[in-house]
Structure formats: C-alpha cells, structure tokens
Amino acid sequence: MVSDRRIEGAAPRALFLAAVAFFASWACAPATRAEDAADTRFGVNRLNLGWLKRQEQERILREIADSGAAHVRLSLSRPVDRSIEALEIANRLGLRILLEIQLSNKSYYADTVQPRTGFGRIWDINRLSDLDIDRYRAGLKDALARIDALGIKLDAVEPGNEINLAGYNGDLAVYQKPGRPTARDVGGLTDRAAFEKGLDNYIEALKVTREVVRASANSSQAAIISAGLSDMGPKEADRQGMERLDPSEVIGLLRDRGMDAFVDAYGIHIYPARKDPEAIRNVVTQVLDFCEPSDSGRPCWVTEWGIANTARSCPVDDRAREGAMTAMRTVFATFAKAKRLDAAYYYDWDTQQNYRVWRCGALSPAGAMAIAPQEGASP
After folding, report:
1. What percentage of residues in the chain have a pLDDT greater than 90?
2. CA distance linking residue 183 with residue 180, whole number of Å
3. Is the backbone of residue 294 left (phi > 0), alpha (psi -120 to 50) or beta?
4. Helices 192-214 & 133-149, crossing angle to 10 degrees?
C-alpha cells in the first residue's frame, strides 16, 4: 500500500447497473466448481480482520459476499486465533481465500530481536534477515492444523508483503530525514549484506511454506504466491525517505536463489497514480513485464491494486476513477488471455478512506467494476 493518489476518468453508469444485476443472481449460484479453478480471479482485500471482534468480522465478510465478490485476500496476523475465526467465516460464506502470512509477526523472531526503527514516521518493523525459520515453521504448522480442523480450504497462500520496501522489510533503511536520494538498485543499499541475507531467509520461508501447505488436509492444492512487491518509484521513495527496489530486480534476485522451485506465481502490487487511461495502460503493462505465461514460467498475481477517490459524499460519486478502473481491467484482461496473470485483488474494501470501495453502505460503481468476473470466464 502506498500514499494516497487520485485518478480521474469516466465510464457509463449502465456498466455498473449491469454488474449489480449480474451479482444479484450470482450471489445465489452454486460454489465454484473445481474445473473452473483456472479462471482469472478478481477479488478484494480485507486485511487484519484478526483485530476485530467476531461480530464485526461476520458483518464485513457478509457484506463482501453479498456484494458478489467470490475471492478475498485475508491475513494471518496476530492475534492468530481471531485471524483464523475470520477465515472460518469467509470459508462458510463461500469466499475463496488468498491468505497473506504476515512475516512481521513477532512470534517468528527470537525474543532478543529488536525491530528497525521507523523514526516515528512509519512503523517499526523486524528485519527479514532476523527471521527464525524454525519458529516460522512451528507457527505455520500450528495455524494450518487449526485451519484444517475447521474444514477451511485455502485457494492460495502468500508469505510476506512488499519485501522490496522499507515499510515491510527492516533490512531496508528508513532515513531519519526524508528528501535525499535513496538507493536505485541493490548495490546502493545502506546494508546490502543484510538485505541479501534476508532474501536467503525468504527463500527458506517459501520452502517451508510449500512443505507445510502441501501436507495440509484441505489446502494441499493451494497456490503458493511470492510476496506481493511494491511498485513505489524512486522519486516517491526519496520523498518518503524509505529504501525500495524495483520489483523486477527483486524477482531476479529471488529467481537466482531458486524461488521458482517453491512458488506457483509472483506477487505484485500496482497503484498507477495516473489520470489518463492510456498512461495507465502503459505504466501497468510495464510493471507487469516480468510476468510469464504459465506454460513456460511463472505468471503474476496482483495481490493489491488501487485507484483513489478522495470524494466523501453520499451518495457516492465514483466517476473520477471509473475510467481508470476500465483501463486497469483492460490490461488485466490482456495479460490474463496470455496466461501471464492469474489474479487481481482490489485494495481496499472498507478501511482506507481514498481507496475503499465499500461506501455509503454499499459497493461503489468502481468497486463493482474491480471485482466483476472476466468476460467469457466460467460462472
């Protein structure tokens, strides 16, 4: 997730009304068949439900399901018990779950480990180079056993989040005072050795994840997705005073370490910060350039993408981002047809003021466009 951005555009209101009519019938349709699993997934993010009481979890997930969404990205974070409660509710409601495992969970680190400071501008975060693989294995095995015992079936598992950005990887530096140039590649990092050790640890975490998931009673066929990488550019990193690396560079570093043996797809996040649909198509196509056809490499899962709407009025006015939504979906359709994209999960359902699609007590028009099934896909 990156800083607020505003995208403007326009799309016919009729498209939203047609989507609503379709969703009204789809909400009562049978659960997705196994043979339809290859269809491109279009879903929505609702992270950190473990922070809420069960009643709130139930309300939010029911709103998501009733709005026509079939896929949801949820998180396994502390408190783990409540995170698993949310998974049980989502599974019962027929939502297919992408589970993001938060590697910042302090249970995965030795008690003596201290997080890297964010100087009060951003959260303090543990270093990936300090990740205790044995603790991670034990925690994941316990969580998956409890998930299995509840009859929950996971669609996919994504260990980690934006490990190419200082906000989620303590091996990357946060500058005490922002504004000066940040690293443009791995060679310019403040502590390259620590970052590369963290990547080594991440490969081990992927290996453990695959082993534990493949041993699951209900989720053994879940796809393993590498951590969704931030698309933050260097100028924004300079402004925020946080080190970051280009997604394509980090994918290359991880592939050199053997990542492809443990993942089924690469995770990526996209917040295009463009107003013109053609500009959006160009920038998103460039970001997804490293995604490969599934029959010859690893495709991508866009585990977060977002278009801002700063309006706060009710009824909601979503015209400012409908054109951008259309442009994004056009690129996604092109990559999906080429088997270079398997999934895209919109950020955010209801927590981030500018990016949220649940507004004024209903799914917004742009939100309906974001989660609509791909044309021609199986119902």
Report:
1. 85
2. 10
3. alpha
4. 30
Nearest Cα residue to 87 out of 140, 150, 29: 150
What domains sit in the chain, N to C, each tagged with a CATH number? Answer: 13-25+39-371 (3.20.20.80)
Cβ contacts of residue 165 below 8 Å, gap of 6+?
172, 229, 230, 232, 242, 243, 244
Taking residue 53's Cβ as centre, other Cβ atoms within 10 Å add up to 11
Q: What per-residue confidence (pLDDT) applies to 57?
A: 98
Residues with Cβ within 8 Å of 50's Cβ and at least 6 positions away in sequence, in order, are 75, 76, 77, 78, 79, 80, 81, 82, 83, 85, 86
Q: Which long-range contacts (C-beta less than 8 Å, at least 24 apart) are formed by 110-116?
A: 110/135, 115/170, 116/170, 116/171, 116/173, 116/174
Tell me which residue of 97, 123, 105, 112 sits closest to 44, measured CA to CA.
Answer: 97
Q: Which amino acid is at 190?
A: T
Q: What is the CA 104 to chain-centroid distance, rounded?
A: 15
pLDDT for 26 beyond 60? no
> Which pLDDT value is given to residue 320?
86
Q: Which residues contact 193 (CB under 8 A, 6 or more apart)?
A: none
Task: Give ∠ CA 75-78-82 in degrees, rounded to 5.
Answer: 75
Q: Report, as an integer, the average pLDDT of 261-268.
A: 98
Q: How far is CA 221 from CA 106, 204, 214, in A?
A: 28, 20, 7
Contact between 125 and 168 (Cβ < 8 Å): yes
Of 320, 324, 333, nearest in space to 288 by CA: 333
Confidence of residue 36 (pLDDT cuts 50, 70, 90): very low
| Phi, psi (rounded to 5 degrees) for 199 | -65, -40
The backbone torsions φ and ψ at residue 302, rounded to the nearest 5 degrees and listed phi first, read: -85, 95
